[in-house]
Design a protein that fits this description.
Strand order of the largest sheet: 6-5-7
Number of helices: 14
Shape: globular
Largest sheet: 3 strands, mixed
Strand content: 5-15%
Oligomer: single chain
Distance between the termini: 41 Å
Helix content: 40-55%
Number of strands: 7
Order of helices and strands: EEHHHHHHEHHEEEHHHHEHH
């Protein structure tokens, strides 16, 4: 099997490791997008504040003037591309499925944890092409935030609660969409306004306590939250928003801190690769 599979996209990214591709064609349909554009940009903007100087320089080598918040939404935007890569291969990289309380192992088609590990290897390999490193970094920025959305550590069978039909202030939707976008967008703030507001409430003690570059820890947190957010009534409104908007904002804060931790660990692993093993 060749080392890379050539593929085409409008963004001119040209190659990808076939270990992803061969297995991922077996994938089942993926859940809807995790976080909306606002949520992904918020997490990336928060992360940018906590990057080391060395990591920032390495990212600029890959992205040039493009910011993390610009890159954050690209993997979701490209899912509209009809190419087989986007329709059949990349879908499983946005989520994990956890039947109990602890992430066990990935399915044959791979998942977000597998993708993070392999994309990190691409970034650390000096022989990787610029196109491969751009692809890898874009996905890492995106996936770290995905794993902090509780329904992207989903139960088996309900596609991350896409199958859980609800109404949001009287409008038909599903629970996944409420957590992706509604709870964020109903705050009526731009991503930069929300990121600035959330970052003002992150203390130095918070950063130290939450600095964790281990995806399995983030997943364990998301699963614990997941079990508390399925509603008893399908009619969601002010009460559900009041109880859960603070959780959403906290997960965005934590996603930003963990994205910085993961990127620092990727580019400068000696001081950064420390898992707190949070329960």
């Amino acid at each position: 099997m060749p080392t890379h599979l050539k593929w085409k996209s409008k963004m001119r990214f040209s190659r990808l490791l076939p270990a992803f591709v061969a297995a991922a064609f077996l994938a089942v349909p993926s859940p809807a997008l995790a976080w909306g554009k606002t949520g992904h940009r918020v997490a990336a903007a928060i992360a940018d504040h906590y990057l080391s100087g060395y990591t920032r320089a390495r990212i600029e080598q890959i992205f040039g003037p493009e910011s993390l918040d610009e890159a954050a939404t690209w993997p979701d935007e490209m899912r509209a591309d009809p190419a087989p890569f986007w329709q059949k291969v990349a879908g499983p990289w946005h989520y994990v499925t956890v039947s109990g309380t602890v992430y066990d192992s990935a399915p044959r088609e791979g998942d977000a944890v597998v993708a993070l590990e392999r994309f990190r290897k691409i970034l650390r390999n000096p022989a990787s092409s610029l196109a491969d490193r751009q692809l890898a970094l874009r996905f890492i920025v995106h996936i770290v935030a995905d794993l902090h959305q509780p329904l992207h550590a989903g139960r088996p069978g309900d596609r991350g609660a896409n199958e859980v039909k609800v109404t949001w202030f009287g409008k038909p939707t599903n629970l996944h969409a409420v957590w992706d976008s509604s709870l964020v967008d109903d705050q009526q703030l731009s991503f930069s306004e929300l990121a600035a507001r959330l970052r003002r409430h992150i203390s130095s003690d918070d950063v130290i306590a939450l600095w964790d570059a281990e995806p399995r820890d983030w997943i364990r947190e998301s699963v614990a939250i997941r079990e508390t957010i399925y509603p008893t009534s399908p009619e969601l409104g002010y009460d559900y928003a009041y109880r859960n908007t603070p959780i959403v904002n906290r997960r965005l804060q934590w996603a930003g801190i963990r994205l910085a931790a993961y990127l620092n660990a990727t580019f400068d692993p000696a001081p950064s690769m420390r898992s707190k093993g949070r329960k």
